[in-house]
Amino acid sequence: ADTLGSAAAGQGRYFGTAVAANHLGEADYAATLNREFNSATPENEMKWDATEPSRGTFTFTAADQVVDHARSQGMDVRGHTLVWHSQLPSWVGGLGAAELRTAMNGHINGVMGRYKGRIHSWDVVNEAFQDGGSGARRSSPFQDKLGDGFIEEAFRTARAADPAAKLCYNDYNTDGVNAKSTAVYTMVKDFKSRGVPIDCVGFQGHFNSASPVPSDFRANLQRFADLGVDVQITELDIEGSGTAQADSYADVVEACLAVDRCTGITVWGVTDKYSWRSGGTPLLFDGDYDEKPAYDAVLTAL
Ligand code: XIL
């Protein structure tokens, strides 16, 4: 196979990218996206601030652009994300507990309902655990006002809103076996034992020299898979360049391929030019859309 998407498909996986609606009009951007990838995640367009900037008023123009483009190209779409402490409009934080619960469920129903039947996997809850060794939940309006049960409630609402979508919990710094990933693992195990609807766990995969690809990445993916959920690498980018970066990308692909339930990989952008890590070069295509050594390494590993 000679593209990322077709090579991944040959392994029974998808290979996706974050997509920004405002770049779709750039010919090289669209050509690279359309040629190489068979899954798309809206980078910002489905977040709460973009879709429900004021209470009960939904705006889907930009999200529609990404979804329509992706589906017209035969790509799957990952939904990202419904309940997250960041990119959250200020009106949400001003609500009391009862109103917040209603608003959370209304938001899930509003966004999932819009795209019902068109989303492969949804990041229902994003980044709900703290960094570091505590294994504790992160402070957020949802956590602080609704308590630990907000995640379970969000997943139950999401299942009813689009029964065909795979429902994922997504986080970062959970790629290796550590206190944070173990806290997520414990939650997923509890959900599976009690029948709370969860289908997958997303591992963002934002790596740099301070936070490299962990040596136990495969083992960590496998322990989650062994709970009976799919695992996905959802926002992969790796700072660096040249051979070192290429080797790290190959390690990630090999880890996913070694785990039967690792169903796909998404990189967090098409080109270094538009990476959220400004000034960095963490992706597979450079600013001229030329293939980097990391691209060749991924294609070889697939
Ligand atoms: C980032 C986007 O790439 C940026 O454009 C935006 O300014 C901030 O969010 N974890 C996530 C993603 O789950 O939604 C974030 O995306 C990166 C970190």
From TrEMBL:
Keywords: Carbohydrate metabolism, Glycosidase, Hydrolase, Polysaccharide degradation, Signal, Xylan degradation. Residues 1-301 form the GH10 domain. The keyword Signal applies. It catalyses: Endohydrolysis of (1->4)-beta-D-xylosidic linkages in xylans. It comes from the Bacteria. The active site is at residue 235. Its EC number is 3.2.1.8. Belongs to the glycosyl hydrolase 10 (cellulase F) family. This is Beta-xylanase. It comes from Streptomyces ambofaciens. The chain holds residues 32 to 333 of 446 of the full protein.
